[in-house]
Automatic annotation (TrEMBL):
Keywords of this entry: ATP-binding, Nucleotide-binding, Transport
InterPro entries: AAA+_ATPase (IPR003593), ABC_transporter-like_ATP-bd (IPR003439), ABC_transpr_MalK/UgpC-like (IPR047641), Mo/tungstate-bd_C_term_dom (IPR008995), NA-bd_OB-fold (IPR012340), OB_MalK-like (IPR040582), P-loop_NTPase (IPR027417)
GO MF term list: ABC-type transporter activity; ATP binding; ATP hydrolysis activity
Stated family: Belongs to the ABC transporter superfamily.
Gene Ontology terms: cellular component: ATP-binding cassette (ABC) transporter complex, substrate-binding subunit-containing
Top-level taxon: Bacteria
Cellular compartments annotated: Cell inner membrane
Protein's UniProt keywords contain Metal-binding: no
Entries under PANTHER family matching the protein: MALTODEXTRIN IMPORT ATP-BINDING PROTEIN MSMX (PTHR43875), OSMOPROTECTIVE COMPOUNDS UPTAKE ATP-BINDING PROTEIN GGTA (PTHR43875:SF1)
Segments forming domain ABC transporter: 4-234
Claim: Transport is one of the keywords in the record: yes
Topology of the protein relative to the lipid bilayer: Peripheral membrane protein
Descriptive protein name: Sugar ABC transporter ATP-binding protein
Length: 361
């Protein structure tokens, strides 16, 4: 009964439409991340699920139950915000126990739950510390514990890790996933950080400008982005997109990349879709799905920068519309001053319609 159905959901603030006709079902026990840049409508969607904002149009159902007119406190959802809300004059134990006590839970059960949640969130040694003596990292962990201890069937988290430091964020990603598995909650997680979404979510709903762009498993949105926005937004760095046109060659169908020459022949799945069309397309390949090759064996372009970042090296090539990046293992070398030849893995290539931005295959 804890599936969340969003039907034709629209939210307007005056003349401004913050959310345009969102349709999404989050299954019972599923972890879905709402991912997108600042201002794309993630929090607005979340606030409507929580009952803090009312939809301008459309419906929200929890299972079969229509949430129209159901106030926040009656929705049975747990909510954690970016800015933790905890009682600083209380100890960690008192903070964790507060909710269950308010609900009249017997003391033995409260103690059991506090013990279990503290263990899960690694708060056990800190239980008797006063909250005002603790770091932001720990406070956010307490805030998550305070909501989680009520074992809500639906748990909503809005950028809960954005104020904590990077090392702690990595730890919390694992813990939150663990928490969700343990309680089998339906979890909706708002973030602009693709790493959080990719590592924790069963499915990711990618949003931009109030429009749901794509919903899929992390690997689906990475491998098969539905459009240019998702292709660029997912991945680090995002997908390379070179303008070109399909063209017949004696080796088969290729993409004529203008000043960069032509690609290798397209695999059958793409040749099949593109044969006979001559419209402008974007030739997409991920920086990590390409290698440097010998001259004549790929796309030649001047090297503009080389970034060495530990285990990987990012080579920047070309400029303007012809700019691209290739991620190499450290044992491969790129000559900073010269030009290099990029050979994309043709089986992983995606083609997009240049005008609409939609994936063609
Ligand atoms: P962020 O991560 O920055 O919060 P977001 O994707 O969560 O981004 P929302 O907070 O949902 O974005 O906001 C979507 C758009 O709606 C933004 O342009 C925002 O300025 C606008 N907006 C949100 N709340 C209101 C409001 N109460 N009144 C007017 N405009 C609003």
């Amino acid at each position: 009964m804890s599936a969340i159905h969003l039907h034709n959901l629209v939210k307007k603030f005056g003349d401004f439409t913050a959310l345009k006709t969102m349709d999404l079902t989050i299954e019972d026990g599923e972890f879905v991340a709402l991912l997108g840049p600042s201002g794309c409508g993630k929090s607005t969607t979340m606030n409507m699920i929580a009952g803090m904002e009312q939809p301008t149009e459309g419906r929200i159902l929890f299972g079969e139950r229509d949430m129209a007119g159901v106030p926040m406190g009656r929705r049975g959802v747990g909510f954690v915000f970016q800015n933790y809300a905890i009682f600083t004059h209380m100890t960690v134990r008192q903070n964790l126990a507060y909710g269950p006590r308010m609900h009249g839970t017997p003391k033995a059960e409260v103690d059991r739950r506090v013990g279990a949640i503290a263990e899960l969130l690694q708060l056990t040694p800190l239980l008797d510390r006063r909250a005002d003596r603790l770091s932001v990292n720990i406070l956010q962990r307490v805030a998550i514990g305070r909501s989680a201890i009520l074992e809500p069937a639906i748990f909503l988290l809005d950028e809960p890790l954005s104020n904590v430091d990077a090392a702690f964020r990595a730890v919390m990603r694992t813990e939150l996933k663990h928490l969700q598995r343990q309680f089998r909650q339906t979890m909706v997680y708002v973030t602009h950080d693709q790493l959080e979404a990719m590592t924790m979510a069963d499915r990711i709903a990618v949003m931009d400008h109030g429009v749901l762009q794509q919903v899929g498993t992390p690997i689906e949105v990475y491998n098969n982005p539905a459009n240019v926005f998702v292709a660029k937004f997912i991945g680090s760095p995002g997908m390379n997109l070179l303008p070109g046109r399909p063209a017949e060659s004696d080796r088969g169908l290729v993409i004529d990349l203008g000043p960069l020459g032509a690609t290798a022949p397209l695999p059958d799945r793409l040749a099949h879709v593109l044969r006979g069309s001559s419209g402008e397309v974007l030739f997409g390949f991920r920086p990590e799905q390409a290698t440097l090759a010998a001259e004549g064996r790929g796309i030649a372009a001047p090297v503009t920068a080389v970034e060495r970042i530990g285990a990987r090296t990012i080579v920047h090539l070309g400029s303007g519309e012809q700019a691209m990046k290739v991620v190499l293992d450290n044992d491969q070398r790129a000559d900073l001053d010269g030009s290099a030849v990029v050979s994309p893995d043709m089986n992983a290539v995606r083609i997009f319609d240049r005008t609409s931005g939609r994936a063609l295959g």
